[in-house]
Specification:
Largest sheet: 5 strands, parallel
Shape: globular
CATH class of one domain: Alpha Beta
Number of strands: 7
Number of helices: 8
Radius of gyration: 17 Å
CATH superfamily of one domain: P-loop containing nucleotide triphosphate hydrolases
Distance between the termini: 17 Å
Helix content: 40-55%
Bound molecules: adenosine monophosphate
Strand order of the largest sheet: 2-3-1-4-7
């Protein structure tokens, strides 16, 4: 199958959402963020949203059955070609199901980019993170690069910025713990099959995005 399929993986707050948007734009890929899809489902009060909300607010993973259905629907609707997946897979089971879905279409993941970053930097970044509930743009009060031009307002669409419920410090620590326990085996799996590329997440978004693009093209 033509097209390119990438995964971006990293701890919460490693910058994967911001980087995925840039890489998607530069390479003409669809950006598929399972976190964004879930937040949309929650705000539209769909059945998936109702099921997912309490897990998300607690910093826990949403059960695999829900996530797999969500992703399958998205790929069936928008096609199996040319995407960058952000936030999925987060468990080994999700990775196996994704591989099975892709092999049915006689395709596979081209590269998996792991964003490497110190956990203490992550906590600092996540407590300063603000998001736009209207267009999903991401800001950070702790960074010159990502501070909004007008306090509390989205530069892109003018909506009021909010702090995600799961960006409170206690929930952040829990999400990092979940990442270490449940997502680390996914990283090892991709390393073992030879598609993992580790990139340094500490040098600023421009540098990290350039590094990903260099490897991807
Ligand atoms: P994110 O925006 O990627 O940090 O995702 C926010 C939250 O959505 C996570 O903390 C989980 O509760 C949930 N979530 C997103 N993607 C997945 C996934 N692939 N598996 C399970 N839960 C997920």
């Amino acid at each position: 199958m033509a097209g390119r399929r990438f995964i971006i993986i990293g701890a919460p707050g490693s910058g994967k959402g911001t980087l995925a948007v840039r890489v998607a734009r530069a390479l003409g890929l669809r950006h598929l963020s399972t976190g964004d899809l879930l937040r949309e489902s929650v705000s539209q009060e769909t059945e998936i949203g109702r099921k997912a909300e309490s897990y998300m607010n607690q910093g826990a993973l949403v059960p695999d059955e829900i996530m797999v259905d969500l992703l399958r629907d998205e790929l069936e609707t928008h096609g199996f070609e040319s995407w960058i997946l952000d936030g999925f897979p987060r468990t080994l089971h999700q990775a196996e199901i994704l591989e099975a879905m892709l092999s049915e279409k006689e395709t596979s993941v081209d590269r998996v980019f792991l964003i490497d970053l110190d956990p203490e930097i992550i906590v600092e970044r996540l407590t300063g993170r603000r998001v736009c509930p209207a267009c999903n743009a991401i800001y950070n009060l702790a960074s010159d690069e990502f501070r909004p031009q007008v306090d509390g307002t989205c530069d892109t669409c003018g909506a009021g910025l909010i702090k995600r419920k799961d960006d409170e410090e206690e929930t952040i620590r829990r999400r990092l713990d979940v990442y270490d326990k449940q997502t680390a085996p996914v990283i090892e799996h991709y390393r073992a099959i030879g598609v993992l590329e580790t990139v340094d997440g500490a040098g600023g978004a421009d540098r990290t995005a350039a590094e990903i693009l260099r490897i991807a093209t």
